Amino acid sequence: MNDTTIKLKLSTREVEGLTNLARDIAMKYWGLDFNIPVIINPRLKRSTYGRFIYNKKTPLRIEISGYSIRNLYITEIIDLMKHEVCHYACFIMQKQLSDGSRFFEGELKRINSTSAGLSYKSVRKTRGK
Ligand SMILES: [Zn+2]
After folding, report:
1. Helix 74-92 vs helix 12-30: angle between axes, to the nearest 10 degrees?
2. Domains annotated on the chain, with CATH
3. DSSP class of residue 94?
């Protein structure tokens, strides 16, 4: 199985849905526009549910692992997206945006999202098998 096959399997509908979700989250909690793509990256490790990618000045994209898409409940996907969009929002606001930093963690609390390092219920369940 190669990456192209996996990408094709997971494409358009899900990705569009995720991008719309991110847009709604950015607007609802920060009043911010969200203009970067959300993509599914099948190569991310299991432990990396998602990540926010940026360079010095520009936000680039949010990546969600194929594993998350296949294994998390929808409520957990929403929570994961809140976490990733929180990185994005902190970046745009030029605040501390790394996991564990005071501002970022404060924002997570405010929007009621999960901190990094906590594993999702459904994942804990699958792991036992
Ligand atoms: Zn994070």
Report:
1. 60
2. 3-118 (3.30.2010.10)
3. T
Cβ-based neighbour number of residue 35 at 10 Å = 11
Question: Alpha-carbon distance 81 to 114, whole Å?
Answer: 10
**Terminal-to-terminal C-alpha distance of the chain:** 23
Q: How far is the CA of 83 from the centre of ligand 1 (A)?
A: 6
Q: Please tell me the distance between residue 84's alpha carbon and the centre of ligand 1 in angstroms.
A: 6
Nearest-10 Cα torsion for 36, 41, 46, 50? 0
Structure-token pair, residue 6: 């996996």
Nearest Cα neighbor of 49 from 114, 129, 125, 128 is 114
Digit-coded pLDDT (tens) for 36-92: 999 989 898 877 899 999 998 899 999 999 888 888 888 888 899 999 999 999 999
Question: Whole-prediction pTM value?
Answer: 0.83
Ligand 1 midpoint to CA 99 (Å) = 5
CA of 100 to the centre of ligand 1 (A): 8
